[in-house]
Hydantoinase/carbamoylase family amidase (Bradyrhizobium pachyrhizi), 812 residues
Amino acid sequence: QIDSARLWGTIHETAQFGATPKGGVRRLTLSAEDKQVRDWFRKACEEAGLEVQVDALGSMFGLRKGRDMSKPPIGVGSHLDTQPTGGKYDGVLGTLAALEMVRTLNDAGIETELPICICNWTNEEGSRFAPAMMASAAYVGDFTTDDILSRKDAEGVTVAQALDTIGYRGDAPVGRQKFTSFVELHIEQGPILEAESKTIGVVDSGQGVLWYDGKITGFESHAGSTPMPLRRDALATLSEIVLAMESIAKKHGPKAVGTIGEAVIAAPSRNVIPGEIAFTVDCRSADAGIMDALDRDLRAAVAEIATRRKVEVQLDLVWRKAPTHFDPKLVDAVENAAKQLGYSHRRITSGAGHDACNLNTVMPAAMVFVPCKDGISHNELEDATQTDCAAGANVLMHTVLALAGV
Amino acid sequence: QIDSARLWGTIHETAQFGATPKGGVRRLTLSAEDKQVRDWFRKACEEAGLEVQVDALGSMFGLRKGRDMSKPPIGVGSHLDTQPTGGKYDGVLGTLAALEMVRTLNDAGIETELPICICNWTNEEGSRFAPAMMASAAYVGDFTTDDILSRKDAEGVTVAQALDTIGYRGDAPVGRQKFTSFVELHIEQGPILEAESKTIGVVDSGQGVLWYDGKITGFESHAGSTPMPLRRDALATLSEIVLAMESIAKKHGPKAVGTIGEAVIAAPSRNVIPGEIAFTVDCRSADAGIMDALDRDLRAAVAEIATRRKVEVQLDLVWRKAPTHFDPKLVDAVENAAKQLGYSHRRITSGAGHDACNLNTVMPAAMVFVPCKDGISHNELEDATQTDCAAGANVLMHTVLALAGV
Ligand SMILES: NC(=O)NCCC(=O)O
Ligand SMILES: NC(=O)NCCC(=O)O
């Protein structure tokens, strides 16, 4: 059993780095606050006797030796970056539970057959730089390191510049640290476990993701003197797109979601009809066929709206992540650990994307979920209980011990 | 006849102050660029022999003496501030045509019975500080000077601070400079004169204006893991409000317009359902009964949408300007001047608000319109011909001469 109070203590200690007045965390990837938590994590890893490496995209790896160093380690971990108005648990729980596991093994003097490597992946959230799960995507070869280094945030700062600013552009080439398999603990970020009073979610699949960048070009004109029928209003156009996305997603019942999260009017003024708007779209499904339908229906709706309103709408797919089917043997291993420890559990699909989803494309991977209050995440009110966090960390540890061998 | 080339020259000379790459002007009220054009205007007034006064809200008055100094002057002018992406003519034409009139009278050695006072009113546009036509509204007593001085822009800078920064907080109390009557020349900012091939619009009325500040409070949550039916999406809510405003305005045919010009998501992120949005509404009609209907229908629509979507929507009326009916005798004077000069003309309603609309509530006022290309205004592409501008300036001068007496 891990030390529940110690795990809880580290979660609340690191929540200082970027703490918001409403009790959440603002720790955008590669920001000054991210540097603070990274420095803390590096020191904690070193104090736990781990050998720390940082790769060229800033992902951090802490290695605990095993008896058999000829095989790659079992990877365990998550991320320490947050949303602009994020919570204390998303990513943090999985990373600090991996650290807690190492501390527990050290205290108990347990040696494993295979080595264990605990990870903090750069930019899992995707709100400062696109795509989300950026570093693990580069790790599995979906993008080249140079491509990712050149990605820019809204202020035009590149990933390379941001890494250099906080001193976290490491020496290790991306992908050099191999793993035998990968396990990640995370809060569910949805309402199912809580609604069914289950402690552990055995994650067997994950939704695919489509991300688009959009731009509407209508025509700026005077709000008072431009007759309604002559308008080419970019905001009215966006409004129809938002509602179309909503109804397209609803059409597929619980099997799809669709969101416009960002929308910026170019030169806003009370008495000017908006002429130009930039926006982003996020839509998802665990079913590849539905993903195709979402893409097709969204494009058709946008084309119809643009033609009717005589505006130009550009819609560029900037990221497509296929649905995830986690490795059946690893999923069983998670389920066995939950069973042996006596926790109530159920199989579950992840609504959110995770680094484990990327890693699963090149190695066996699996995930453990614990409930979060009201299913709320990506919100400063995100909450989870100490008992559930500890339960998740125990399932994580026992899964890893089963994979690494004692 | 005024000097058409000289008028055209001053329009293009002042268009440098805040010139944009697309050929427009960005000269927000009380900005550094506004200071530049104000300094230019003060110097030009002084060189034309006018006595310049600046009032406590920065409005500028250049007085040309008449034979009878016991009566207040005829006021003539407009404004020199622009929209964030504004054009070269909106406000500028009316202010510089007033200057051109003085230069023409000086050159011809014409003395008038009543004095003439040419004006540059502060913050007519209303895009940096609300309301629009701010200084003339304070002039007629709709707001106190202190109230206006404390209004803030989006960055939290007050009118008082902005005035002090550019050195244009004058000594003259607001309202001290009296006028016998007021005449303003402006581009139409709508499509009617051009469509009917008329050179002069004799403005007999103006739309009333309703301005609201709105705020939507939904709930931020994860774009991937939050099921569609559980969402309280602030942007989807705004989208319904935008389309409701559009259809409410359309219901009244050409007699109403309605626009959402500004909308800002509080902490935007691609994979976060928007939780909070601030927005503004501008709706107008020349019919007081329709204005009441617009207000009632908008509030009802907003309430229904908010209840159905389980979000909070705050909608505060921040400005209400009644429809304008310009002084019949002055309207006739404008029409007579147009007739005598042989220009094609028609009576017209102003879609936009103007300082003359405010001044008309305390003195006889009227306006002269000239066509602008495709009815486009509040856009960098705003355009007008030298011939039409000169025609408008001539009608303006002959109206003023009729009122001031030669
Ligand atoms: N787990 C999580 O919130 N990931 C962020 C990436 C996404 O799914 O949008
Ligand atoms: N004339 C003009 O564009 N005025 C700005 C105020 C308004 O009507 O919105």
Observations:
- The longest strand of chain A covers residues 208-217.
- The pocket of N-(aminocarbonyl)-beta-alanine (ligand 1) is lined by residues A 90, 124-126, 132, 189, 352-354; B 222, 224, 271 (CB under 6 Å).
